[in-house]
Amino acid sequence: MNWNLFVSELVAGTVHGCVYALIALGYSMVYGILKLLNFAHGDVYMVGSFIGFGILTVFGGATALSIPIWLLLVIMFAAAMLGGGLLGVGIERFAYRRLRDAPRIAPLITALGVSFFLENAALLIVGAEYQSFNSFSWNPNSSGVGQLWAIGITLPGNVRLSLAQMIVIAGTVVLMLALTYFVGRTQLGRAMRAVSFDRQAADMMGIDVNRVIAVTFFVGSALAGAAAIFNGIVYQQVWAYMGFQAGLKGFTAAVIGGIGNLPGAVLGGLLLGLAESFTQGYVSTTFSDAMVFVILIAVMIFRPNGLIGKPALAKV
Amino acid sequence: MVKKAITVAVGGACVSAALVLAGVATSAAAKTAAKSPTSVSCKNPIQIGFMGPFTGPAASIGDDQLHWGEYFEQIWNATHKLKINLVQGDTQLNPAIASTVSQSFASNSSIVGVIGPAGSQEVTASAPILKKAGLGFSSGSATNIALTNGSLKGYFFRDVPNDGVQGPTDAAYMQTHLGVSKGSSVMIIDDQESYSTGLAGIVESALKKAGVNVDRESINQKDTDFSSIVAKVTSSTKVVFTPFQLASQTQLLAQQLKAQGKTAVVFASDGSFDSKTFNVPGSYVSFFAPDVTTIKADNAVVSAYNKVFPGGTTPFGAPNYVLAEAWAQAATKACAAGKGTLTRAALRAAFAKTDLSTTILGTPVAFTPNGDVVGAKFHIFKIESGGKYVTVA
Q: With an 8 Å Cβ cutoff, is B311 touching chain A?
């Protein structure tokens, strides 16, 4: 048994899975409330990446940071989550609100349109060149390796788990716990659950449905912003079309877990990340995307509502 | 019900007829567009198409190539009666977009020759369109060996050596300087594009002939996580050869190898030649052109270029200066022979006879019958600390 390969893929799959899980949560939250597949969600993630890259540039760039790394990360997360959240609210307000009672195809097409708009706006504003967080160069040690990568622990199989990867895993757990608390224990969370169950009834009970939906978009998009920073510090690259691939994987993760189901989104994300990694390691790197969709098809055949999704009730 | 059936049938027939007419019209338009124009007047600036990745992941390469072409255009037009004008076509290093750009050049009757495309897969996609339109085209960076196998004889030219030279050069350097020998291990990773797979195959073949153990892997140009590849690099892997088209991917892989404490040397091909993007010290890069900034005879040209296009240059740029020069010289000869008019065929024929005895590349440029440059060689650069590229071979 090649423990090095096994542990290496386990770590990579978990890190990737965390990013997918955060993106999938946004899809699930919006679908749960509005039964809308927000295909622009991947591009909110892309915008979050560019916000993070912008913050990095403002503070000197990868090779000449003017502030400590911990402060840089805090500012990056805050900016990307706030920026992503506000973008999500804006998209809901101007692109989706008026189509709430329209046939389902209309908001779906609109979502695609918003996605194209964001991609091309990014191309126009920042250009098409790939940018890089280059976290390997952030305050390097004597060997030229940045602190986020030089600091770490060695796992069984002689695999290095770096601080950057630990931040992603720990950060995802913290965000999951925060979201669980928010949805389960706060009044606004209760209102969100009520609206997702029956929007009209919630409205009649005095819940401000527009505000609840706006908050849902804010939270989901903020999570995409966080995912963007996690991706940036581990996988570096930022480009205008990165949202499409990530959004597709996030959407797939949400469907696998059970669209509209928050724990399902997390489960789907982790499963997707691990499936990709282990396929790359043990089968072929070229087959990993195909494997993801094989899993999706299998889940749809045997568990059409997702792994832990519940069938929707329809009044007859 | 019968009435409804008749209505449907008539409607269907009308739609079918409309589709057929549309298809015929499109085909006629395409044939017209692809037809070679008669001639252009040499009194007007000679229009030369310039295809390159001016935006997209390889924009740094495309901009460098364009700037050198434009620099030649400026100095030529300032000193010659016959003017040239470069018409830009952005391909984003994407074969599908390159096809569209090729079609627009082919349809533009004033364009009589083309510089570009930059990438081998783009040349493959563009070649049928440009050839059908009678346009000669020349690349300063497409190195896939199959491009000059004779099928594009008289139409496609390049002033850089092909991978048939790069592959053996790289394999030989690994054996003579990087400790690769019989029984040792090398990992070769391609990015699934024709440029990469072609070159990877040549190097794999050369190394296997020498008794080297080769582990062949493959990634996709969108990949950013190379953990599975990194895990397969062992302490006995001497070199990781990465013929990627995107320097950013090579940089990412090299960084991930370093982060996991791997000691294998990263050896990249010319697609990764970009000191701003790929700059991990201790790595190597091969390239098809010399660094003109280190050639003493080019000091004046480089200095003047830097004044027009400040911000530095890479060896990707200079071959396109030479191509622009070759097209300008060919146009001069063809215009003289055509008594003031120029056709695509005449320009192509004149270009095939290019014989520049001195160029800024430090070597003369002439073409073989299949379109390759005579006598060119690849250069090896080592990345020193600070990301500086130093010529070592």
A: no
